[in-house]
Amino acid sequence: MRPSSLARYLLFGLLLLPLLASLANATEKAPPNVVMILTDDQGWGDLSIHGNRNIATPNIDQLAKEGARFDWFYVCHLCAPTRAEMLTGRFYARTGVRGVSTGQERLNLDEKTIAQYFKEAGYATGAFGKWHNGMQHPYHPNARGFDEYYGFCSGHWGHYFSPELDHNNKLVRGDGYVTDDFTNKAIEFIEKNQDRPFFCYVPYCTPHSPMQVPDEYYDKFADMDPKMRHRDPEKEQLGMTRAALAMCENVDWNVGRILKTLDELNLADSTIVVYFADNGPNSFRWNGDMKGRKGSLDEGGTRVPCFIRLPGSIKPDTRITQVAGAVDLLPTLLDLTGIEADYPKPIDGRSLKPLLTGAKTDWEDRHLIASRNNQVSVRNQTYRLDNSGKLFNIQKDIGQRKDVSAEHPKVTKKLKEVAHRYRQEMLPQQDDRPFTVGYSANTPLPARDGVAHGGVERSAPAPNCSYFTNWKTKEGKITWDVEVHEPGTYEAVIYYTCPQSNVGVEIQAELLGQETSASITEAHDPEAYGPERDRFSRGAESVVKDFRPFSLGKIDLPAGRGTLTLTATKIPGDGAIEVRYVWLKRQ
């Protein structure tokens, strides 16, 4: 071959290389993104697609029509347990979650979360909203697989307009109404990571109380006489219903914003969108004649909306009639994205991909469990066995009005055996886990996790967003059961309020035989706020104050478990201080 011919072939080959590389990249299709939206205290009946004529939710309805709609989707009776099941694919009682506050909401550290699977697979991971499965590292979302976190870690918050929030374990001030704010941050995350796979978790905190919502949503409902009422109308509080429906319409608007963003970035066809709720409605309002509400183990407390969209894989208007639940979301999403499921522990969920994609499958009947303390209810495809042993044919009697246990003794016996095994295996369990200190540079210890003594009180019955008040004497103290992971020097910072008359009070922090103290030299006595924005009177939630940080000094701590104790060693005035947090900051 002549040199000129060889040169032409080499030149042709060089020109061909980019085309071949492009074709190779096209054949290696990127895995789909995931956007998971979770609402808080939204019932199955709080959507217009389910027949509620009191409300319009066009964006969520459209999402449901464009993908799969679950007829029988089940979660837990309360917030933190459902989140644990979604995060792990395991029944919540296996995961260390035993309640919704004072540390009982924490997910055991040996549990692998859905975010960790996605992060290991190369996904960008972010969560924007209410976490509710642990606050201190290594329970914090940043330590459970989420690169980016913005929201609050407690079970509820006391104010929804520009409240204090957590951004990657630092306190920041929110920007506007929380649901709008969380959506803004989620959209920013999607835009930032549009050129790589991402897992975006958006756990809204509404319509959970306090019942606060902007005027533009509430005005429509302010004087509404709902066309559709709860099955027991005398139980319904119309003011609560109106506020909840307004909050749900705000959620719908924000869902529409996320879907619009996916469209504008040309990501809609390559993104799985999941929408579901964490438990039944937080009040008695229309819910399709189901019995029970949030906190109940009946249909009304545990059956929620769930929709999954993935164009090209899930056909529009797909209806899933098989029972499914939050435990199924992890295996389903790993299956749909092609991530290898290396489960460190057996899971209770199963992949719903065959049902979603229309693949032929021999789908066996199964048992989904709802439990609260030692109470257990079991659901299979047709029946629900309640905690008292009554059996209901849900396909014919969704209101659970007729006990058919005598007519179906074999079914009743089988479901009772399932409930018994569950109780024996998982209930009850004691929770003696301390609060962890030193796994990160900054460890917050909120009033929620502390214990009051000597006349000190919480600001409200529900601990989640409370603070300590009524500290009048030296006999008063506040304690936290903690374990220091990393020995070293820590700065003890309290977040306090103090009237002018109590300036000079000396506060001491003691832990593991070490102590530090300082006197309050500056008054900080802000007004409480929150209830003035409520559309319906709050119950157990605390009012809110803007607390000020104050350093008690540095303290050298060994590793080990002990009791962090705050005491007032000098009280020159009528009392001591109010306390929202102690932060231990490793130096």
TrEMBL record:
UniProt keyword annotation of Cell membrane present: no
Gene Ontology MF terms: arylsulfatase activity
Annotated Sulfatase N-terminal domain residues: 32-339
Keyword Signal assigned: yes
Signal sequence, start to end: 1-26
Keywords: Hydrolase, Signal
One Pfam family this sequence matches: Sulfatase
Similarity-based family: Belongs to the sulfatase family.
Protein name (record): N-acetylgalactosamine 6-sulfate sulfatase
